[in-house]
Amino acid sequence: MPPTPAMHSLQSRVDSFKKTKRVKRYPSKKTSTQAASVKWPHPASYKANANTLAEAGFFFSPSWDDRDCVACFLCGKELSDWDAEDDPFAIHYEKCAEVCGWAVVRCGLVEDMDDEGNFTFVNKARIPTTKVIEEARLRTFGEDWWPHDEDANHGANSRKMAQAGFVYTPQDAGDDTVTCLYCNLALGGWDKDDDPVYVSS
């Protein structure tokens, strides 16, 4: 499944679990009229619930055979057959750390913290200033999602955003809100002369 910019916003992903989806029984047959309405089948007590799945990058994307299928908005990875104790952050990171920027920067945060929730960065490869982590942050801006990349002279381009420690977290289409996942600072309304490195320091 390709990246899905419509699901880039956290709220869009959360909302996808609240809506009933129509799925075809025989999707390969163009003339098939058999369809069913599908709702998210698991209770909120599951570790994999609407909020945790959405924060881990997933939106509800069921099929006839996989009624609890979810897909990542960035890498497109589809996962289903959720059990009560399945952790969407751990599973996304485990399965997609090689290919998905969101899995690396958001789902991998647990590797960077101690039991009290303080950042320790035991794994030196995950230090925020490493090229690997910076490139993962850059991937959250997509190929053409960041609105200020259209202007070659804009000071707040996606590369500078990633260098400054930000990931793209829009609230709706065209929004330029970014967030630092280490301090939870969210900023938007970037002007042409803004320097994200200066703002974040």
Describe the protein's architecture and organization.
A hairpin with a 6-residue loop joins strand 7 and strand 8. The chain is globular, with a radius of gyration of 18 Å. By secondary structure, it is of the alpha+beta class. Helices cover 23% and strands 11% of the residues. The strands form 3 sheets. A 3-stranded antiparallel β-sheet has the order 3-4-5. A 3-stranded antiparallel β-sheet has the order 6-7-8, with no helix packed on it. The chain has a two-stranded antiparallel sheet with strand order 1-2. The protein has helices at 10-16, 50-55, 88-96, 101-105, 131-139, 158-163, 196-200, and strands at residues 21-24, 35-38, 58-60, 70-72, 78-79, 167-168, 178-179, 186-187. The chain is built from 7 helices and 8 strands; from the N terminus they run H-E-E-H-E-E-E-H-H-H-H-E-E-E-H.
